[in-house]
């Protein structure tokens, strides 16, 4: 029983760490001031019209999105609810305590955009590996996919393009960072998953980390029966 509790605690530590890294990388994109990730275009656009922080905007939209996903038949897990609350909290925490140093030169701002995607990608890979549930936005994507029968890539792109348009109309920042995030996040997350996959074969970690069945190392699946 003690080992089971330890494994659960480790899973939640991986989950929370993933959320923090996702938030930190996102704020690097904000500090770079060259455009932010698609969903953050909407969040920052909302802050221009309502007396809320970026983190609160992320929480409110996450709640609305999750409600829609549930209506589409997606059943949220504990990690989904944690995602909805904690990512927004960490966004405001990183901003309030200025944990991301300011930069002014263009080369450093571009570097922040790239590093922001890399750090955020590690965060996404981390909470995926915790195997405690998808985030509200991914839940919506899955719900729409099930209802329409469209490919995941088509649904994801359609949702994110729509979000960027709405966010831009609300005054959210669109630019190099938005394009970089849209194009780089998928490959970066996959690379981090492959890197983390080396831990799956180690004792204890194999019980904590679960990778999607589509992620493989060499010719062998990393974890048979892992969640997608």
Question: Could you give a short description of this structure?
Answer:
The chain is an all-alpha fold and 228 residues long.
Polypeptide structure, described:
The chain has nine helices and two strands. The protein is mainly alpha-helical. It has one domain (2-221).
Largest sheet, described in full?
A: 2 strands, antiparallel
Helix/sheet category: mainly alpha
DSSP summary: helix tally: 9
Report the helical percentage. Answer: over 70%
Number of strands: 2
Q: How widely separated are the two ends? A: 27 Å
Unreliable residue stretches: 216-228
| Order of H and E elements | HHHHHHHHHEE
Number of domains: 1
Categorize the overall geometry: globular
Strand ordering within the main sheet: 1-2
Please tell me how large the radius of gyration is. Answer: 17 Å
Percentage of residues in strands: under 5%
Average pLDDT reading: 90
Highlighted features:
71% helix, mainly alpha, globular, 228 residues, disordered C terminus
Strand-helix topology:
Elements: H1 2-32, H2 38-47, H3 54-71, H4 78-96, H5 106-129, H6 136-148, H7 152-169, H8 176-200, H9 205-208, E1 216-217, E2 220-221
Antiparallel strand pairs: 1-2
Helix pairs in contact: 1-4, 1-5, 2-3, 2-7, 3-4, 3-6, 5-8, 6-7
